[in-house]
Amino acid sequence: MSTYLKTQPDEKGFFGEYGGSFIPPELQAEMDKITDAYYSISKSHDFISELRSIRKHFQGRPTPTYFCRNMSRNINGRIYLKREDLNHTGAHKLNHCMGEGLLAKYLGKKKLIAETGAGQHGVALATAAAYFGLECEIHMGEVDIKKEHPNVVRMKLLGATVVPVSHGLKTLKEAVDSAFQAYLKDPITAIYCIGSVVGPHPFPMMVRDFQHVVGVEAREQFLEMTGELPDTVSACVGGGSNAMGIFSGFIDDPQVRLVGVEPSGRSLKMGDHAASMSYGKPGVLHGFRSYLLQDEKGEPAPVYSIASGLDYPGSGPEHCMLKDKGRVEYTTASDDDCLNAFYTLSKVEGIIPALESSHAVAYAMKYASENPRKSILVNLSGRGDKDIDFVVDTYGIR
Question: Which domains does the chain carry?
Fold first, then answer.
């Protein structure tokens, strides 16, 4: 592991001024137990060996890095994809869910509780629960339940209880609220398995560390394929787990430009986008400090994205620190950009991407056309099977 990863966050879970743990004392006691267990159990030979075996024989890792020959030729650039869509369950989420599930097993927990937006984290956690023989409860906003019906069916088939969330905007933020409340009622036998690099310490660190495998593989694969490192590495950013996963493999390579792509949605009017890194300001939500989209009263603002997994009013605290330091740049892609990338990658390369990932693909298409002599590696964080009914019913087949 790089020097950077060993020094971030600090002992209290802060990445610079972001992160930490702003939660009730009774819940902090449980978080301290999880932190202690993570530092001791997850570094043990038995844990590491079992997780490596799971990744190889159950998840199908390593996932490949792929050169987009047709798209690159059409654009006159060089676009590569880290194919996390080929990870078992169809997204990067299983990387940390199997780690969290294994940790829960070592801790003697009986139940996994989590939120989900696009459903990929819910499916991955339900998969982990089935694998380890644990109960699973997934909280999901009613709007997302309707949009992501295939993933709801998958969660139920895997044995999870799906709890509809009907308050507020009925999307990801409200699902997090609901899952936290459920966990507060039973922190002894259950463990909360957050779906991204957000939440109180130690979750931003844990999820990043479990996702680090993506960056390690991508770096080795790109060097083997090309003999050099990519000029730019890009990923979509909501909470930011897939981005931190791939960025962490290149964080110590200053010549590699890192770019996070947020959803600018329908417009930059409040409630029409979810670009917290680009337009937010520091605040506290769900037990941690980060850039946060806020209304005039300082409350979390309503957010929107065509991609259910990106409609969150904040981002991971590590992203916030990396923005302030200038190590990662953050830009945006609109719904229209996202849909264009979704249709293009599907028809030109035979790969149907998740709407979340399509934001990063949209940026890569623009970058490649403007920089024909440079390479860009995109974390294709998930496949679009979950989105096809929504996209075709709403926008048709182009």
Answer: 15-56+93-203 (3.40.50.1100), 60-90+212-395 (3.40.50.1100)
